[in-house]
Amino acid sequence: KKPLVEVSHLKRFFDVGRGQILKAVDDVSFEIYPGETFGLVGESGCGKSTLGRTLIRLYDATSGTASFKGSSIHGHKSKSEMKQLRRDIQMIFQDPYASLNQRMTVTDIIAEGIDAHGLAKNRKERLQMVHELLDTVGLNRSHAERFPHEFSGGQRQRIGIARALAVNPSFIIADEPISALDVSIQAQVVNLMKKLQRERGLTYLFIAHDLSMVKHISDRIGVMYLGGMVELCESDELFDNPLHPYTKTLLSAIPLPDPKLERSRERMVLQGDLPSPIDPPSGCRFRTRCPFAMEVCASETPKWQEAAKGHFVACHLYDNGLDGKAKPVAQGV
Ligand code: SF4
Ligand code: MG
Questions:
Q1: Tell me, what CATH number does 167's domain have?
Q2: Prediction pTM value
Q3: Do residues 292 and 328 lie in contact, with contact meaning Cβ atoms separated by under 8 Å?
Q4: Which ligand is nearest to the CA of 175?
Q5: Strands 203-208 and 37-41
């Protein structure tokens, strides 16, 4: 299967003044396949939103490449190619309240893309399309002439989803789409997204700060830490057989329903604070918080390697493969 999105050694740095550079995304490589949900997880400030925004070309790439359907996202594009890209890739945001124009009616919000791309022949067809989109996301047609403030958070996220769908995209970047919602509403939005994916063959990049939020929706998951990707594999594999110490600490933070499992599992607590991405630790960026840190971790950046089929990790513990000499010996856990 050919990837829909291919990211290779992508970097996105920001000049934050006084000669300081923020390495928000630093040498990240991965692929997203058609029809899959790729979960992207990490603490706030790890670069996951920047990565999402770089893929939709809200940001340029500092170096490296990203391609969509085989064509470079950041390379030179004609006006019509840009327009097609803007249609094909849509974004859903964390805060549906902030991302919706408060002065516009639901109809005008949803129809923005329809208008920009000239998808409706006349006003009647435009309204018809909006009504069908409201049906699709489970909102009432009578909501069409109301304003965003008249809706709950979950309903506003549905409006945001309808707006994204209006131009028939194939790839949707959802940046923490459920993080701001009540727990009871989160499942509804996730179920809606899954249903739309089945019906329309959508591909998702689903960004979250919490592994439990992406577990059920993701086919594969990438874990980011301080601008770098540290682990990537299938969702079940990540939960059953995490390799990177950072992933293990994230998993330890999720309570298990079964007390027996809870007692038997390896517990790792994340120590210390997140270092600044402006002056990150040398070598492995996780070393200041890693219970397994070795000498080599300070001097050499761990390589991004496929430790098992489809299971990628950047950690010196696996330099000699999965059964290598460097066995994890925890200090202080
Ligand atoms: Fe820990 Fe070293 Fe692996 Fe980094 S490379 S996660 S410091 S063991
Ligand atoms: Mg973010």
A1: 3.40.50.300
A2: 0.93
A3: yes
A4: 2
A5: parallel
